[in-house]
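Encode chain A's predicted structure.
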Amino acid sequence: MTNASALLSALGDPTRQAILDLLLEGPQPVGELAALLPVSRPAVSQHLKVLKEVGLVVDSQVGTRRIYRVDPAGLAPLRAYLERFWAKNLVAFVDYAETVAERERT
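Encoded structure for chain A:
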């Protein structure tokens, strides 16, 4: 399983974010993705390789084309990380707000 840090690093590139957004709409081959992006087909292939290595996308062979799609299981570590992040920060905010409210009462 890939850790959240690797997923965040992979998604740090705007082109990879755009590719993931397009794949969230449905499976697509490299050529169709490249037609929708301001980068070459080989560049899209390289970005897909990175997304595949961290587990965000999977591919399958259909005839002579490779079809890429988002792997929902690959998003799980990122979702868990973000849920922990927000839970921790919301608890800290509540503690801070209670401390401020207590000071104002005294």
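Residues 4-105 form a domain with the Arc Repressor Mutant, subunit A fold (CATH 1.10.10.10).
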